[in-house]
Amino acid sequence: MARRRNQFRFTGKSHSKKGIAVSFASVVSLVVYAVFVAISINNQGTLSMYYGSVGVIWIVESLLAVIFAIQSIREEDSFPLFPRMGMVLSVLSLLIWAGTYGLGMMG
Questions:
Q1: Angle at 21 between CA 80 and CA 100, to 5 degrees
Q2: pLDDT of residue 4
Q3: Beta carbons of 73 and 90 less than 8 angstroms apart
Q4: What are the pLDDT digits (tens) for 35-63?
Q5: Which of 1, 5, 14, 50 has most Cβ atoms within 10 angstroms of its Cβ?
Q6: Per-residue pLDDT reduced to its tens digit, 72-101
Q7: 25 close to 61: Cβ distance less than 8 angstroms
Q8: Spatial separation of the C-alpha atoms in residues 98 and 15, rounded to whole Å
Q9: How far apart are CA 84 and CA 20, in angstroms?
Q10: Residue pair 18/87 in contact by the 8 Å Cβ criterion
């Protein structure tokens, strides 16, 4: 039986917990958006104001996710994967939610 070699880490870096949380929250936001679009298609584009108010809450959540993503990018001694992924996903989520809300207000 082959013996495993000791695996050494020569860095003090770790994955950012804020970055992971922001990435997860942004993915959830995008999934909720897809569900809302599916519900809207099933109702021929007519939804109640309650769906609109939930959309506003998701806009605020996306804005907070962008702020936390910026904070997680600035963390020292952490790998940049999750903070950068969280930043991209949260900005995408904010643009989608705010854009849909803006288009709904115009029409």
A1: 100
A2: 62
A3: no
A4: 999 999 998 888 888 888 898 999 999 99
A5: 14
A6: 888 888 888 889 999 999 999 999 999 988
A7: yes
A8: 30
A9: 10
A10: no
Segments in the chain forming alpha helices (H): 17-42, 49-73, 81-106
Q: Residue 6's pLDDT is what?
A: 67
Report which of residues 10 and 102 the model is more confident about: 102
Tokens encoding 41? 């298609």
- Cα separation, 18 vs 86, in Å, equals 9
Q: How far is 37 from 43, CA to CA, in rounded Å?
A: 10
Mean pLDDT on 18-22: 91
Counting every residue written for the chain, the total comes to 107
Cα separation, 14 vs 22, in Å, equals 16
Lookup: tokens for 63: 């804005």
